[in-house]
Amino acid sequence: MLNRTASLDLVEFIETQILPQYANFDRAHNMEHVTRVIRRSLDLAQRTGADINMVYAIAAYHDLGMSGPRAIHHITGGKILAGDARLKRWFTVEQIGIMKEAVEDHRASASRAPRSLYGKIVAEADRDIVPDVVFLRTVQYGLANYPELDKEQQWLRFKEHMSQKYSEHGYIRLWIPGSPNEEKLKELRSIIADVRLLRQQFDKHFDAETAKKT
């Protein structure tokens, strides 16, 4: 029988040993982000009948690979999960293998669909498609990783990222039919299609973020 509530001792382990590591990552992959991914993952687990403990752990581990190069963080994260012997307290070897693959498959730019329901759940939950969150995270990432760019250069990077990832022709894919992300993606795409509205969003978040540093 599948678990319907996460094990209390697993929750305690995750909250004390795993989640604090997110304090070391950039603002687009911080504690606030992983908390959202966990919450969304658990909601999707209830919808799909997936094992709650597995989903909870996958979501908690999904971005731990940010401790290394971003480009392969999904691969690194899978290795971290699979190599954490403490998880054997709650999961079988087979379950850990599925969980490792799910972390590997969560990246939005992946060229293929996730290999399991668990990969689809964390990939879907990782999509912060609330427009305001998308704009904020993109500005924050640009400022953190390309501090040498001036405002207009940051705008060009921001606009290109929006087009490449979230536009009608972007690479983002949704994997759970009927998920809340469908309507949010439509809203986001309508803003991206209007350069004037998109620039307004960029200016709002860029000015707010840079004001914090002065």
Would you mind describing this structure in some detail?
- With 214 residues, the chain is mostly helical.
- The chain contains ten helices and no strands.
- It has helices spanning 8-18, 31-48, 52-61, 73-83, 93-104, 117-125, 131-145, 151-166, 181-192, 195-211.
- Helix 2 (31-48) packs antiparallel against helix 3 (52-61).
- The longest helix is centred in the N-terminal third of the chain and has 18 residues, at 31-48.
- It is globular and about 50 Å long.
- It starts with 7 loop residues before the first helix and ends with a helix.
List key phrases describing it.
214 residues; 10 helices; 61% helix; globular
Quickly give the structural class.
mainly alpha
The shape, in one word, is: globular
Give unreliable regions as ranges. Answer: none
- Annotation, overall tally of beta strands: 0
Mean pLDDT over the full residue set: 92
What percent strand? under 5%
Could you give a quick summary of the protein structure above?
The chain is an all-alpha fold and about 210 residues long. It has helices spanning about 10-20, 30-50, 50-60, 75-85, 95-105, 115-125, 130-145, 150-165, 180-190, 195-210.
Write the layout of secondary structure elements.
Blueprint: H1 8-18, H2 31-48, H3 52-61, H4 73-83, H5 93-104, H6 117-125, H7 131-145, H8 151-166, H9 181-192, H10 195-211
